[in-house]
Amino acid sequence: MGFLEDFRASVESVPAMLQRNYALMRDLDKSLLGVRQQNEQRYEALDEQKHCIRIADEKVALATQAYDMVDAHIQQLDQYLRKIEEIRRERELAAAAAAAGASNAEGNTRSGRGEGGRGGRKKYSISWLAAEQPAIELELPVDPNEPRYCVCHQVSYGNMVACDNPSCQIEWFHFECVGLKEHPKGKWYCPNCVGLQKRRKGK
After folding, report:
1. What's the chain's Rg over C-alpha atoms?
2. Sign, CA torsion 175/178/181/184
3. Whole-model pTM?
4. Rounded to the nearest 5°, which phi and psi values hold at 149?
5. Between the CA atoms of 98, 100, 104 and 105, what dihedral angle is there, to the nearest 10 degrees?
6. Residue 187, SS3 per DSSP
7. Of 43, 122, 169, 173, which residue is most buried, by most CB within 10 angstroms?
């Protein structure tokens, strides 16, 4: 009967051994679950890192595209500005040439009138030079043989106007001496001729 007692004793220890094994298995399950969760977190973190890298790459690509677009527009704007500057210079040159031509034509008209009517008085207008250059007062030697004009009895210079009286003894007058700022419209008579005409009408 001793073997039965031994068997019963061994059977009685089985539940405790099973309980201990089950407890160990539960602990292993917990450990495995913890490891699995850690691995999943690591995988998620790795995926998140990869996703962040993809987003950063897309941002870099968009920034590069925006830079290229702005740079292209800046280059185009530079080309437009160069063209505008060229057009502006051409217009300035054309305007200067036109002003010079008009001034020369006016000077030739004055000189022609002086040569045809009054023994070769030759004068040139420098109004276009005065308009483009700052006024500079220079004391230049005057030719004693050069004709004198105007009420100031000085040589020809600057803007001058001709009296429309064919019998005028002076004929040409400086703007500032007769109070003019621009060429008069229509006929113009100097103060001497105006006074002479008034005296004649008074008689």
Report:
1. 55
2. negative
3. 0.33
4. -135, 180
5. 10
6. coil
7. 173
Q: Which residue has the tokens 């105006």?
A: 194
CA distance linking residue 19 with residue 27, whole number of Å: 12
Helices (H), the chain: 2-117, 127-132, 191-202
Q: Give the per-residue pLDDT at 12.
A: 79
**For 120-136, how does the pLDDT look when each residue is reduced to its tens digit (9 = 90+)?**
344 444 443 444 444 44
Q: Does residue 177 carry a pLDDT above 90?
A: yes
Candidates 176, 182, 174, 178; CA nearest to 195 is: 178
Strands 160-162 and 172-174: antiparallel
CB 126 within 8 A of CB 158: yes
**What is the pLDDT at residue 100?**
73
* pLDDT the model gives residue 22: 85
Are 99 and 107 within 8 A, CB to CB? no
